[in-house]
Amino acid sequence: MLPISESISPSIPTVTENIILEPIQISEPVQREEPSLHVYSRRPRVTQQNQPSEPTSDPLQELQKEKSKVDDLDAPIAIRKGKVMKNFGYRQGQADHTLFVKESKNKKRCFLIVYVDDIIITGDDVDEINNLKRLLQSEFKVKDLGKLQYFLGIEIARSKDGIFISQRKYILELLQETAKLGCRPATTPIEKNWKEKLTEEDPPTNRERYQRIVGKLIYLSLTRPDIAYSVSQVSQFMHAPTIRHQNAVDQILRYLKGTPGKGMLYKKTKNRKIEEFTDAHWSNSKSTTGYCNKFWGNVVTWRSKKQSLVSRSSTEAEYRAIAQGICELIWLDRLLIELKIDVNGQLHLYSDSQPAIANVHNSIQHHRMKHVRIDRNFIKSKIESGKIKLSYAPSTDQEADILTKALLRISFESNVSKLGMIYIHSPT
After folding, report:
1. Which segments constitute the Reverse transcriptase Ty1/copia-type domain (predicted)?
2. Which residue from 21, 71, 89, 340 puts its CA 20 to 30 A from 259's CA?
3. How far apart (Å, rounded) are the C-alpha atoms in residues 86 and 81?
């Protein structure tokens, strides 16, 4: 079981590991050897006058030199710093510093992604992949684990239809740990209007256990956008969870009991569009933003997050969601450029809020939107540059709806299928 930190973010982060660009030919996880060098630091000598004497050399510089020696022996640190990979002719990504790219003269590419002490090598340049493995083995003690099938709790399967990723084993272990293997499955991960049942008189629950389970659910949501909203909601009460909050977590576990084998299928398609769907659910406190990005017809990033400010209207909440969505599109565009992938045409951004879209295209700023002028100017500048095209999508086609609110079963299942989630395992 992958250890999860007790320090949990109240939102669902999006990471590069969610992105699968095309069928992978070779993917090699690599493990490192632990360094045997230890670092010690000493205080300066003290004189009889109780004043520190001048050290013969700077202790901080000595400590930095020793730390540098450790980093040179530590394969992941050396790779992340880019020292080794730059010597191999690789360029470190700026959109994602764990990514290294090398393009040959015949336009073939090799990619390396490092996470702590695990590495994935992939690309269409087979000769360079083999050469890189030899180079890494000459510098560090590594272990070649063969074709990628399991990585950080994520299971990867290949077929003629595409690449399928899931966390079935991780889910079953979580259900066993929480004694939910024999529970009655739920059809949705969260009840509609569940927050209305919360009261100040609700008794508290075990906070450490609550944080541990929600932390594992947060990691699970990296491959399960169907639980992103519900996990984002329960993670907002880490400081003082109650029995009702624990019941909401149990609802997510009961939903996972009925869908352990559900995952994301990445198909090879002729679609070459980059699309993003943004949505917001207005609340009298802080609204919820949801967005998902589709690369060549496949959902690659998603997020469900509570907005930082209170919105005075649903239009304002949608406005903030569009601004956050544009930031994600800009990041994705930068990443694709570093991956040497040509982005033909515009980046398509869809929203189901006609008033918000009208405000973007309106040359006269309305007095009711003056307080969101920064977001408005940011959105307008990106739209006018021609790089991003903002269009209306009706609510029936809004794929980010599942990331902003609790839905009833029929609507929920319809939205899940739009995200490209399928079963390849029978429910337990």
Report:
1. 83-192
2. 21
3. 9
DSSP bridge pairs for 298 = 295
Amino acid at 215: G
The Cα–Cα gap between 410 and 414 comes to 6
Q: What is the pLDDT along the chain (428 residues), one digit of tens a residue?
A: 333 333 333 333 333 333 333 323 333 444 444 444 444 445 555 555 555 555 555 656 665 655 555 555 555 665 655 778 888 899 999 999 889 999 988 889 999 998 877 888 989 899 999 999 888 888 777 888 888 888 888 999 988 889 999 999 999 999 999 999 999 999 999 998 888 788 888 899 999 999 999 999 999 999 999 999 999 999 999 999 999 999 999 999 999 999 999 999 999 888 888 999 999 999 878 899 999 999 989 999 999 999 988 888 888 899 899 999 999 999 999 999 998 888 777 899 999 999 888 888 876 666 666 667 777 788 888 888 888 999 999 988 999 999 999 999 999 999 999 998 988 765 54
Burial 305-315 (b: 16+ CB within 10 A, else e): bbbeeebeebb
Token pair recorded at residue 179: 């004694």
Q: Is the full-model pTM beyond 0.90?
A: no
Taken in order 194, 196, 199, 200, the sign of the CA dihedral is positive
> Residue 428, Cβ neighbours under 10 Å: how many?
14
* Rounded Cα distance, 3 and 212, in Å: 10
Q: Are 46 and 333 in contact (CB under 8 A)?
A: no
CA distance 158 to 265: 10
- Euclidean distance between CA atoms 48 and 424, whole angstroms: 75
For the chain, counts of helices (H) and of strands (E):
12, 14
Angle at CA of residue 205, ends 203 and 210, nearest 5°: 150
322 in Cβ contact with 390 (< 8 Å) = yes
How many alpha carbons lie under 13 Å from residue 23 in its C-beta half-sphere? 10
And the tokens for 58? 């700077």
Contact between residue 164 and residue 153 where contact means Cβ atoms under 8 Å apart: no
Distance from C-alpha of 375 to C-alpha of 200, rounded to nearest angstrom: 36
Distance CA 353, CA 3 (A): 41
The candidate with the shortest Cα–Cα distance to 420, out of 312, 329, 299, 317, is 299
Contact 129, 88 (CB under 8 A): no
